[in-house]
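Working notes for the structural subgroup meeting. M.R. asked for a predicted model of this chain before we commit to crystallization trials. I am recording the input and output together here so anyone reviewing the notebook later can reproduce the run.

Input as submitted:
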Amino acid sequence: MEHSYNIENVPLQEEEDWKQVTRRKSPRQCVIGNVEESLNIKAIAKKAFLYVSRLHPSTKQNDVELFLKQVIPEAVCEQLESKFPQYYASFKVMVNLNNFNKAMDPNIWPSGAFVSRFFHPRTAKKTPT
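Returned structure, recorded in token form:
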């Protein structure tokens, strides 16, 4: 039994499938200072943001701040508009990054409270009309 292959009908896509390997750009070198005191300039601590929800609807911003200041003194709280304000209250909490793990400890939060990292949606760039 003879097989006849028509080579002309086979598309040559091999060249399109191959991509040239290029080197990745090396990240820019950066330096993070470590001098504690300076006369004129000071650095700020990196911040982390938390989303706190499933709290009682009567919970106010001041209540959450007073609660957190016992464990994390620099905590700052902002009340968010909940989808169902009659059922729960939601907050955005800012803490120093070095206290993030402490803030994510389930033992400091009331039973049933929901705590996660806050998602900052990217804002679309507005084009002038």
